Amino acid sequence: MNRANATLLNLAAVGCLAVFLWAAGRHLDGYKVQIINLIAVNIILALSLNLIYGFTGLFSLGHAGFMAIGAYVCAMLVLSPAQKEMLFILEPPIWPFSVVQAPFFVAVLLGGLGAAAFGVLIGFPVLRLGGDYLGIATLGFAEIIRVLANNLPRVTNGALGLKGIPAYANLWWNYAWCLLTLYCIVKLVRSNFGNALMAIRDDEVAAKSMGINVFKYKMISFTLGAFFAGVGGALLGNLLTTIDPKMFLFVLTFNVLMIVVTGGLGSLTGTVLAGIVITVLLEWLRFVENPISFGGYEIPGIPGMRMVVFSLVLLMIILFRREGIMGMREFSWKGFLRFFGRGGGAR
Amino acid sequence: MTSSMFVQHFLNALTLGSLYALIAIGYTMVYGILRLINFAHGEIFMLGAYFVFWGVVLLHLPWPVAVLGAILITALTGVLVDRVAYRPLREAPRISALISSIGVSFFLQNLAVVVFSAIPRQVYRPEWLTKVMIVGKVRVLPLTLFVPALSLVLMLGSIYIVYKTKPGLGMRAIAKDIETSRLMGVPVNRIISLTFGLGSALAAASGIMWALRYPQLQPIMGVIPGFKAFIAAVLGGIGSIGGAVVGGVLLGFVEIMLVAFMPELAGFRDAFAFVLLIVILLFRPTGLFGERLEDKV
Fold this sequence. Notes:
The complex is a heterodimer.
Chain A: H1 3-27, H2 30-55, H3 63-78, H4 81-87, H5 104-126, H6 131-151, H7 153-156, H8 171-190, H9 192-202, H10 204-209, H11 214-240, H12 250-263, H13 268-284, H14 286-289, E1 292-294, E2 297-299, H15 305-320, H16 333-344
Chain B: H1 3-34, H2 41-57, H3 63-86, H4 94-116, E1 121-122, H5 127-130, E2 133-135, E3 138-140, H6 142-164, H7 166-176, H8 178-183, H9 188-213, E4 216-217, H10 223-236, H11 241-261, H12 269-283
Antiparallel strand pairs in B: 1-4, 2-3
Helix pairs in contact in B: 1-6, 1-7, 1-9, 1-10, 1-11, 2-3, 2-4, 2-9, 2-10, 3-9, 6-7, 6-9, 7-9, 10-11, 10-12
């Protein structure tokens, strides 16, 4: 398998995805399309957390905070000044948000950059911490962002949130960003830079003594992760067309962490697979919470059951299959063809 | 601010602070022994409050019996959580147990939604705790005196257990070095279960008193007090029981006084503890009374 062939196969796979998206957009109902959209957003979020935690070993629980920043920056940019004036009934929005409007792509990009800027800002103090302390400090950061979003009415419209965000985030945008994220992170972890990250994850002291500038690498990985988390948040905000501070609770980070752990820490293939499985599972479990009528007989829905099942799944994985679906293995065309080659008899 | 108002704020702060302190002791003991941030501790706190509610409303138990029963059952729940979700991960990387505890936290929270429903519940409060007393110009509930007093008794009790009894000696030995303790014949698993039981009992007591003070039960009621008590434990120096008590009371005072003197910051109250956390971790990660934890190479 040479490089040119692999590139061709990759392009073919992207082509298949495009055909699938085209067909899905034409033939599936709105709810199913929404789930397919959510898959892309969740994969972006989980890939970014896997870069931070799975590849660099930084246990970060701040994803909800980065997503909030991305979502708010993007929403404030795509809304027109007139719409913002309508929304901000208590106090007018602050400059420059009161006058500017940006195209969707630019808004998402700036959302990501905004999150990355906060990543740098928070990274300086907290990346010196190790393990669980880093987790709790980044969780604290996410909570601070949420409280700020609630209490800065001129930036975020406070608890009222932003409504009527134009739904630009369609299948094409979401999957383009998803592929871009995947491409960047694959290139990154396969490069020498990625080797340095994994060396830090596996043994920080050894990496340091080999001359790796640990803090610099951690910082770059954390900032990039924050950028893509911001992009994911921006897309999510546009997908749902409404955001408010309550949306960015810790449970949002928990869902992303769940995807990463299920897929396997340090496996991008696993993250993509788990992103699909978990998103579909989360939607499917909604049925448990709604009443089902069964031949005139009503089975009442059980509120809360969805997250009970979901957290049990996480517990089962962490207790009995800590490596997740894929462990640290990755998909490759070579392995793929060998697998099917054996089945088909062509050796 | 008049002096009577100040006294009132002072009592409120003392109540809140001692409730934080009781939860913080559980965090600090578990962290001292297992190096595990027990995310589910806030949910244990919540369960304690709900069990009393159940005992009084469904089983028609007298209030004191319901309280004692609830503390006992909550302690057993804490032990069970450790047995099922943490013990299998003792040899695993530390973060695995942390993720497991996050899973348990969400599990218990949503189980509470399923079993108790998400509708906020009103709590039964014995009359002798809620009849307003007027001392001079200050109006106080007996509750605001009762809570700090009982907390003090419970804290002294747990300090006695840890520093003056044989199981306490075991806890301190395990905190120093788990492997050596095992070799020296300390029944490690039993001592760890005891630690979880004790910590959960204190959290339950705190939850029950919290429900008296802020009389509304909700499945998510443990989240914010849980985080804040953890911050209190870090503030005091994690691993130190005295530190957890001081940290808890200090945090209670800072929160109440900040809002009392600067009411315009009331909306930021919940963020304040987290800012404090990041500042402590930056400048004095060992807290006020903590011992330095070195990285082992």
